[in-house]
Amino acid sequence: MPEIVVKSDWQSHEIKMFGSADIALYADRSNEDYEGFNLGAEARLDVLRDVQVSAGLVYADLHESRGSPDDVDGNEPTEYERLNATLGFAVRSNRLSLSVGGELYRFDYDDANSAAGAVIDNDDRDRDRYDVVVRGGYVIAPEYEGFLRAGLSMTDYDDAVDSDGVNRDSDGLEIVAGARIDVTGVVFGDVFAGYLTHDYDDSRLMTVDGVTAGIDMTWNVTKLTTLGFGVTRTIAETTQTGASGNFQTNFDASVDHELLRNLILGARAGMSYHDYEGIDRNDEVANFAVSGKYLLS
């Protein structure tokens, strides 16, 4: 997966542009081939020493994994486009910090073809998602910052109902409390827990709610080797008949080693548990990956 990143090295403000490609070619099943890409730009304006405004725009041409439970089993992988726009404001005063962020996701799915040549209509999966997140923090000690975070989300589908006659529009709420830890830059990250809920406009879809928690920790074991560990609990959209949502719990671990100054080797392992609300279905998905990153400069 080739990738290029270009960013400014100014003392204040920052502009970053990036792009990557995701290409797969199969020796025996050429219908499974896919080509995707990701293009984006981000900017940060340092209005004052402790006041920042940021914005970003990312466009991605993607495909749905064959392992996805929502895969429509087309003759070729389902392709879709995703547009992501962000706008944020952050201010810090002594021990206190406050940030407000808004985010828009636009999903546009292409139709697929069945093995028999029939058209599989994916228009009822096209949707917009809007998120607003407010976070307040207080530095308890130099190594620890406690924080509260509240987020509101709204998902709006283009079609009033999907192919099953169900309105999948929804509203979500997340409230969490946690701590940001930074022990001399060797061990750092976030730990939090709280409550998450998604309520659907269609009364036939059950509300999905429960405990949410997250860990995103990094340990610089040596100057050359870094370990990472993460846990997330989220509610994902699904098109499974009878299911309102998919409560996901993800565990991820990683290791990166700087073999040379411009060559970084890495390995990843993860496990995901998917609990569907409204139907009797639970999935467990494992994933593993190795990578090599060569830095041009």
Report on this model:
By secondary structure, the protein is mainly β. It has one domain (3-237): Porin, CATH 2.40.160. Helices cover 0% and strands 68% of the residues. The strands form two sheets. Strands 1-2-3-4-5-6-9-10-11-12-13-14-15-16-17 form a 15-stranded antiparallel β-sheet, with no helix packed on it. The chain has a two-stranded antiparallel ribbon with strand order 7-8. The mean pLDDT is 93.
Features:
single chain; 297 residues; mainly beta; Porin; 15-stranded antiparallel beta sheet; two-stranded antiparallel sheet
Short description:
The chain has 297 residues and is an all-beta fold. The protein has strands spanning 3-7, 14-24, 34-48, 51-63, 79-93, 96-109, 112-113, 119-120, 127-141, 144-157, 170-183, 187-200, 208-220, 225-236, 245-260, 263-277, 282-294.
Classify the secondary structure makeup into a structural class: mainly beta
**Strand order in the largest sheet:** 1-2-3-4-5-6-9-10-11-12-13-14-15-16-17
Which segments are poorly predicted (pLDDT under 50) over 5 or more consecutive residues?
A: none
Structural domain tally: 1
CATH class: Mainly Beta
Distance between the termini: 18 Å
Q: Which band does the percent of strand residues land in?
A: over 45%
Number of helices: 0
Give the second-level CATH assignment, the architecture.
Answer: Beta Barrel
CATH fold name: Porin
Please, what is the average pLDDT? 93
The Cα radius of gyration reads 21 Å
Record field, number of beta strands:
17
Biggest beta sheet summary? 15 strands, antiparallel
Query: Which descriptor suits the 3D outline?
Result: globular
Measured as a percent range, the helix fraction is under 10%
Topology as H/E string? EEEEEEEEEEEEEEEEE
